[in-house]
Structures are given as C-alpha cells and as structure tokens.
C-alpha cells in the first residue's frame, strides 16, 4: 500500500510539473534526495543545460531535489517503472540487486578519492554502469560521494572497541550492515530522512556519511562526535529509466550519455568546494573531530566481509584490478 501511495504521489507531482516545464520539447524528470544547491543536484542541472544546447532545445532536465519524489528505495522502483526518467542515487541500495555495485561499496577498497576517480573513470567503472541494463536502468555516470566516516551523539570514537554495542544507521544494504557488524556495532538500516530524529530521540546513536551530507542534513546538530575513519569512498550513480531511454533516438541516446559524462568534472569541482565549506561549518559548530585513529584493526576486521561478498571469479578479478590500479 505504501509503495502505491508513493507511486501515486510521484505521478501527481510529475504531472503537475509537466504543465509548467516549457524550456525543452522533452523534459526528463530527475530525482535527488539531496537539497537544492547540493553538488549532485547542480551537476544534473548542468547536464540539462548541456542537453538543451546540444539538441537545440529538444531535450532538457527538471531536477526534483530534497526527496520530493520519495526516498531512494522508492525512487529507484519508480525509475525502473518509467514514472521517473532519471535518478541520482547512492550505490548502497543497489548492492542487493546488482552484484557489481558491491565492489566499489566495499570498505577500504579505494586508497584515496583520486584512486576512486581513476578506477570509476576507466574500464571497471564502465562494466559496473553496463550492469544496470539488466535491471531496467541505464547507468550514465558516477558522481563523488566523498569519504564516509562515523558520527554519533554519545562519545568520541578512536578505536574499534569504542564502537562496541553502539547503534548506527546504515543505508538499506546487506553489505553495509555486515560492515558495521564486523566492527562490533549494531547496524540499523533506515531511510536517510529519518536519521536526524532517530539520533535526537536515541533510537540510534549515530550514522556514517561524508562532510557535506553530515552538514547539509543538520546531523551535526545532534551528533557532536565525528571520527574520520574514512571506511568507505563510495561513488554515487546517475541512472536513467530504460523505458525512458528507449523513447530516445540512437543519436539522442549518445548525446545524453556524453552530457552525463561531461557533467562529472563540474560535479567534482563543486564537490571539492562544498566539502571544504561543510567541514568548516561543522568545525565552527563545535563538533569534536577525531583524527588520531589506527585504521589497521578496522581494515583487518573487513576480511569476512570480503569473503562473503567477493565470491565469484568475476568479482575477485574486479577487486584485483582495482587494487592494481595506480
């Protein structure tokens, strides 16, 4: 019942917007849970401008930010059904249905953000994007999601022992649940929009995310301890509904693919600026930042996670290629 209510609400909102969208002959509706002005939102807007320029106004994009069309799990289904044309989402919610997305979601798989860029811009990234086609989606591009670290309302965390028994929100992904469990904490999957009130009321002790999300969500107001363990550097993905994709000519499909790729450098520039600004705001608010951490025990604790999720020869080969990328 909840699913159909979300679907109906999305259809109603999209239909209403169609009456006012006059900039292009065909307007692709794109969803994002982040607020207006966030780098991923602005990147898709930039892509829309590129499309309008390159198609002489035949194609454009309207971005529905701030979870106007629902939380990520709901919008993924709506995109598969063709109710939403495009969607910027985290890789986490795809982990249970597209095995290739589990690899860049593995803890400590990337040595740095630069290493992640090199991998996702190359053949491994293209393979992962291609895997979406079997799930009624077209993978277009990867955006930055920053490095994710733990934050909480209870105490400074400087070691694995400090995590013991604490309750942390994770994305709705078995892999993320197992990662937190391997560190000795309790994972609580829940939608992003419920995190603030859940920390505030003590339902959970904290969550894990990057600087801009920690700041823009207001979570830093209720979680005053931020531990820079950087356990994940998970890219985000821009996908398109296969149903919407198939309505385009081959020429327009090529233009959409290229515009998506061309939006990536714009996003990365905005991301670097936003990350610095968010960090400054969080520090000014008096959040205690814990940086003196020995990551070795954290990394060693991930061995059973890798053993569970990296099972096929294909996935093992992908991990090996990522680790070999210089």
Structure report:
This protein is an alpha/beta fold and 326 residues long. The model is unreliable at 18-22 (pLDDT under 50). α2 (39-54) packs antiparallel against α11. The protein is globular, with a radius of gyration of 20 Å. The strands form 3 sheets. It has a 5-stranded mixed β-sheet with strand order 2-1-3-10-4. A 4-stranded mixed β-sheet has the order 8-5-9-11. The chain is 46% helix and 18% strand. It is built from 14 helices and 11 strands.
State the shape. Answer: globular
Q: State the major sheet.
A: 5 strands, mixed
Instruction: State the strand order across the main sheet.
Output: 2-1-3-10-4
Strand percentage lies at 15-25%
Number of helices: 14
Would you tell me the structural class of the helices and strands? alpha/beta
Stretches with pLDDT under 50, minimum 5 residues: 18-22
N- to C-terminal distance: 49 Å
Could you report the average pLDDT, rounded to the nearest whole number? 93
Give the beta-strand count: 11
Helicity level: 40-55%
Please tell me how large the radius of gyration is.
20 Å
Element string (H = helix, E = strand) = HEHEHEHHEEHEHEHEHEEHHEHHH
């Amino acid at each position: 019942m909840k699913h159909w209510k979300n679907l109906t609400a999305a259809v109603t909102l999209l239909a209403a917007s169609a009456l006012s969208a006059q900039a292009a002959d065909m307007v692709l509706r794109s969803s994002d849970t982040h607020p207006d002005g966030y780098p991923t939102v602005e990147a898709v807007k930039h892509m829309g401008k590129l499309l309008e320029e390159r198609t002489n106004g035949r194609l454009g994009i309207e971005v529905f930010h701030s979870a106007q069309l629902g939380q990520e799990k709901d919008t993924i289904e709506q995109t598969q059904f063709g109710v939403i044309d495009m969607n910027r989402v985290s890789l986490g919610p795809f982990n249970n249905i597209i095995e290739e997305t589990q690899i860049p979601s593995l803890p400590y798989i990337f040595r740095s953000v630069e290493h992640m860029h090199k991998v996702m811009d190359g053949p491994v990234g293209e393979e992962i994007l291609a895997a979406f086609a079997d799930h009624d989606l077209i993978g277009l591009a990867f955006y930055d999601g920053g490095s994710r670290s733990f934050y909480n309302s209870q105490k400074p965390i400087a070691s694995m022992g400090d995590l013991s028994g604490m309750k942390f929100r994770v994305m709705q992904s078995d892999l993320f649940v197992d990662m937190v469990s391997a560190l000795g904490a309790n994972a609580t999957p829940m939608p992003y929009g419920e995190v603030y009130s859940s920390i505030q009321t003590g339902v959970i002790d904290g969550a894990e995310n990057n600087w801009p999300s920690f700041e823009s969500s207001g979570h830093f107001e209720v979680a005053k301890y931020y531990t820079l363990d950087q356990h994940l550097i998970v890219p985000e993905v821009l996908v398109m509904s296969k149903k919407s994709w198939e309505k385009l000519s081959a020429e327009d499909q090529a233009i959409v693919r290229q515009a998506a790729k061309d939006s990536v450098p714009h996003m990365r520039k905005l991301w670097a600026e936003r990350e610095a600004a968010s960090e400054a705001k969080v520090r000014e608010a008096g959040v205690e930042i814990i940086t003196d951490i020995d990551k070795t025990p954290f990394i060693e604790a991930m061995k059973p996670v890798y053993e569970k999720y990296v099972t096929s020869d294909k996935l093992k080969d992908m991990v090996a290629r990522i680790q070999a990328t210089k």
